[in-house]
Amino acid sequence: MNKLYIILIITFASLNAQAQQPDYNPYSPVDFSTKDWTYAAHAFYNNHNNSNSLSNEFSKAYNNSEYLSKELKDQQMSQLGESVKVGRVYRGGLGAWFKSRKEQNSPFFYVGVDFQEVLDGQVDKDFVGLVLYGNKHYAGQQVDISNTEYTNDYFNRVKFGMGKAFGNGEIVHTLSAVLGLTIGQNHDYLKVNNAGLFTQEDGDYIDVSIQAETKLADTVWGSLFTVNGLGASADLHYSMYKEKDFFLAINFQNLGFVNWNGGPFTATADTSFRFDGLANDSTNQEQIPNDFSKSGLRNLIFKNPGHSSFTKGLPLNINFTAGKYFSDGKFYIGINTDFYPSLISTYRAELFGTWNIQEKYQITPIVSYSSFGQMNIGLALGAQLWDSVSIRMGSSYLNSMFNPNANAAQGGFISLVFFH
Predict the structure, then answer these.
(1) What pLDDT, on the 0 to 100 scale, is given for residue 220?
(2) For the chain, which terminus, N or C, has the lower number of CB atoms within 10 Å?
(3) pTM for the whole thing?
């Protein structure tokens, strides 16, 4: 039963649901401005979890803090390339739109909340091995863990906005803007420019050289209602639509920042030193560590951290989608792309085709490709229930997410919209 629950959550959890206009659906766009409504509500959740080297099985176990067996560690290490990319983007929320009257092209207003986590990283293969096995595994070897960078942001937003559709002819233009109060739960950043580690064969000493920096908002992972920072953000939307002919839209999400002030930890290191457990009476030598976890390494390396607040930009997402209708609106073929200029894994692109059945049901095969160097195949489904409710769900990773040994490619979306 637990496996079935996990599969359902993953499958119905890739589309970046937008809050900029009611019933936004890049797979099968419609002209919402002609709908007879005064208010609408939506709930959505979407998730992407990817890597160019980490397997689905290992990624799931690690993300859920499960026990990592020696067999799983060994299997994972055998799959790693020299540089390991990881990424996870999830977003969910609730929102509502309002219009003062049912007239076409009337201004609309928005209020809502969303929660987001964006993990982005690139680590050296030996760094993964050091975390999994500890330094004893590398006794007598010089380990290079340079060119490692990791960021994990967790934040919520309370949002307010407005928009308007223009055009009395065949083409409808829509503009909207949403402003948000951003509440930061966690910011975790580590960059290692150059680093090396040597463990003496008998464990008598460990030589470390490192050039690195870190910034954190609290060293303990926050919950949904933790407040470790405050900031502001904006989402912007523009679209152009001709009924049963073509659609294009561009969206800017997370234009903003957070000032992290809850237990901040900032530090840099550019040094070489030796951990020597045989000379504990010396003030110039360190004690051999027994914990090579991320937190253990942080406390050992960054000796004099600062605790002043700092400001960081949010992970900006630029979304572009466009497509063309055929056969009087029965078929729609398009592209949907996401670009993250501040992340290591900068892009994800989808090519899709939607079959509209009786204007109530949609079936959408999807082919996607991303910075992780993988091509994935998925499927989205949509349905208009009664006259006022639409539901969409799907995943872009159906070819790989159920293969435990495949490189991590998991995720999906679900979106529910109600009009009145």
Answers:
(1) 73
(2) N
(3) 0.86
